[in-house]
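To close the section, here is one more complete example, presented without commentary so you can practise reading it yourself. The ligand is nicotinamide-adenine-dinucleotide.
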Amino acid sequence: MKILVTGGAGYIGTHTCIELIQANDEIVIVDNLSNAKYEAVKRIEQITETKIPFYQMDVCNYNGMEQIFKEEKFDGIIHFAGLKSVPESVKIPLQYYANNINSTLVLLELAKKYHVKNFVFSSSATVYGNPQTLPITEDSPLSATNPYGRTKLFIESILQDFYTCNPTFNIAILRYFNPIGAHPSGLIGEDPNGIPNNLVPYVTQVAIKKLPYLKVNGNDYPTKDGTGIRDYIHVCDLARGHVLALNKLKTNCGLVIYNLGTGTGYSVLEIIHAFSKVVGFDIPYQIVARRPGDIATCYADPTKAYQEIGFKAKYNLNDMARDAWNWQKKNPKGYE
Ligand SMILES: NC(=O)c1ccc[n+]([C@@H]2O[C@H](COP(=O)([O-])OP(=O)(O)OC[C@H]3O[C@@H](n4cnc5c(N)ncnc54)[C@H](O)[C@@H]3O)[C@@H](O)[C@H]2O)c1
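Output:
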């Protein structure tokens, strides 16, 4: 299939492009580089030995995107492009609503006009809000605690409404848990701007001494060691989940929703210890106040994705720590 990958120069997009190319799909990347560098696309080309068509374009730009649809004739779309920082979304909510929702509307309009009937959307475990029961199944109640999460919830509803009146479309909503790690080559990985919001790039930046110590937000949660528990999934496993979801769409399945997680939760301290083992010294950290809005525990029930698309995570926590550290060591300044 020929797949439009929006946000394909970003963290999850780059890893997914590699999996798609290895599965013999043809890809075209559209990214406005607001949170990525063109070097990331060159690295995908290096790993896959494949030339990748790339358009630096804002997905919210309808006319610009229409030209690309006319030229490329896609069979499917994977929509990663979006703003993704929870704290930033609280500060600039309108930009989050405008970017994340308008980009999706533009893609759906064009998908309809040009009959591109397979659509994969990057949703998030954040749509489960503060879960009342664990593990989280796809039927668990939905809610949002911040503007970023609300954009994901709204887009999920938009996709449901779109599907209702366009039932020949196939749509996969993938709810990611916490992707970490990097491609084993060490050529691509997560390259956040400024001080990372996510735990693992923060840990690896402390490990290379770019930052002095790690702040652990709260050790008084009702968990085994008091720190927050999340379901961390290797980004290459997550990437493979997209290929499996596309295979499902080829069977004309209509609209499907899957959790992509491992089903296992690790605490912040367990992550720090796993990384300390991999880097060979103790990573310094300090306990600070809880971050408003953070929840105690979140992990997936991955059964549905296993039963319906054969998805099962292959990498363990040690692999995730090893690969994240390998990327950070080889690229202390990210893609610069
Ligand atoms: N990383 C996570 O922890 C996580 C968890 C759950 C869901 N997600 C979702 O997965 C998707 C990809 O996340 P990521 O971690 O790879 O983020 P990322 O920021 O690395 O990648 C997103 C890419 O989209 C591009 N982009 C943003 N707005 C755009 C626009 N209007 N037009 C064109 N390009 C645009 C950015 O430049 C970036 O390259 C996002 O939708 C995110 O919300 C991420």
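Once you have examined the tokens, check your reading against these statements. The pocket of nicotinamide-adenine-dinucleotide is lined by residues 6-7, 9-13, 31-36, 58-60, 80-84, 99, 103, 122, 124, 176, 178-179, 198 (CB under 6 Å). Residues 2-182+232-261 form a domain with the Rossmann fold fold (CATH 3.40.50.720).
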